[in-house]
Design goal:
1 helix, 5-stranded mixed β-barrel, globular
């Protein structure tokens, strides 16, 4: 899948316990809906791995980029303030390549 937009939030380059580099960012992507003359704002989490993570860590907020990646979903358990546990699902794009 391909998607374009602007970087609106970046994280720091991190290393997993087994030594793999990863980098997280948020892509702002606006969809224009002609029938209603509205613009819908989307904020899409991106994950970069390995060499791409190292390169992407140089991105800056407001950089316009084109992403080629795969949509992934994962579930995790969130502990709430009252110590109850809630299962949640996160959706993110794992980036395979990108262009500025």
């Amino acid at each position: 899948m391909q998607i374009d937009g602007r970087i609106c939030k970046i994280d720091q380059l991190r290393k997993t316990a087994n030594g793999k580099l990863n980098f997280h960012a948020i892509l702002a992507n606006n969809i224009y809906v002609p029938e209603s003359n509205m613009k819908i704002n989307n904020y899409i989490p991106l994950v970069f791995w390995g060499r791409l993570a190292q390169e992407a860590s140089k991105l800056k907020v407001n950089d316009k980029i084109l992403i080629d990646g795969q949509l992934h979903s994962r579930t995790y358990t969130k502990t709430l303030d009252n110590n109850e546990k809630e299962i949640r699902t996160a959706h993110e794009i794992v980036v395979l390549s990108y262009e500025i």
